Amino acid sequence: MDYTITGIEPGAGITETTERALEEYDNLQDWELETSSTAGMMGQLDSAITNEEPIVVTGWTPHYKFEMYDLKFLEDPEGVYGDTEFVHTMSRIGFEEDMPEAYAILENFSWEVDDMQEIMLAAQDIEFEEAASNWIEENRDTVDSWTDGVDEVDDQSIELGSFPWDSERASSQVVTQVLEEHGFDVTLSNVDPSILFQALAQGDVDATVAPWLPTTQGAYLEEYGDDIVDMGPNMEGTVIGLVVPEYMDIESIEDLNAQD
Length: 260
Hints:
By secondary structure, this protein is of the alpha/beta class. It is built from 11 helices and 10 strands.
């Protein structure tokens, strides 16, 4: 492992949290966080597991890697990564008044970790758009519960924001297609979390179903929260932390060896 944690993009919330972990844990003081991309992290994880080598990666659920490999989260006694995370729906101020139908659908939007993970796994072989469309058709009762009693609109434009990661690609594609079925003309932009929160606060984006709270994007909510409407969780039971293969004989972040 070369005293290295394999991470993802520099702008990701879990990247910033892991940088704090390197400071909080005495045994990690001389470790390094290698940032790259989600695809890069997955490539290194696959290579390590194929050769049964040790590796530590930044991880979160839902993610399809837990369907592909036997993995475990390391215990976090310092609580750097927080407890269970929630994925929230948020909007700009005035969105409910301007687009009551879209607001109602997004307020009703709620699903499970397994739902998102199912789309993410399917999207390894097909496009996210197709994976989301298939999920919608197979879960029509759930989708209908989000739109029940909401009037259709006629080609009303709406701007959605999201993050450029697989978990958010799953949720944003589902919401985009459900809104389109109801008559909306949806523009979806995938941007860095800091840019999305700023855009919501400035009214440049109408809504999002992407932010993870209270830990992952909590700092951005603290900065911009007075100018954003938090519509509440759309998913619960998500987790972030450090992840290792089951074959590694460690259970806690504190079990990682310090550099001599």
